[in-house]
Amino acid sequence: MSDALAKAEAAASEAAVNSAAVQVALAAVELARLAQSQQQAPAPAPAPAGSQFSAGKWIAIGLAGSVCAISLALSAIAVAVGTVAVTCCVLVLRSMWRDYLKGK
Predict the structure, then answer these.
(1) What is the number of alpha carbons within 13 Å of residue 71 lying toward its C-beta?
(2) Overall average pLDDT of the 20-35 stretch
(3) Full-model pTM
(4) Distance CA 75, CA 87 (A)
């Protein structure tokens, strides 16, 4: 009977070792599943960057708009001066051409 008792003891200890190994394996699987679910969880959306008032941005926009308006005004003045100069030149040359034709 002691042989049967020894076999039963060995089987019980082996079953205990096997159940501990199964428990460790199940814990590892659960840990892997938990890590995978944390990786797949979407990250929270960042707050929009432009939600705060930025005076510097509006000052820069105002300055850029002013520079554009001044450059547009100066180019319009340059076109006007050029047009007046060309008109005067054409009038003088026309007058000179008429005087030249009258002299012939």
Answers:
(1) 6
(2) 74
(3) 0.43
(4) 18
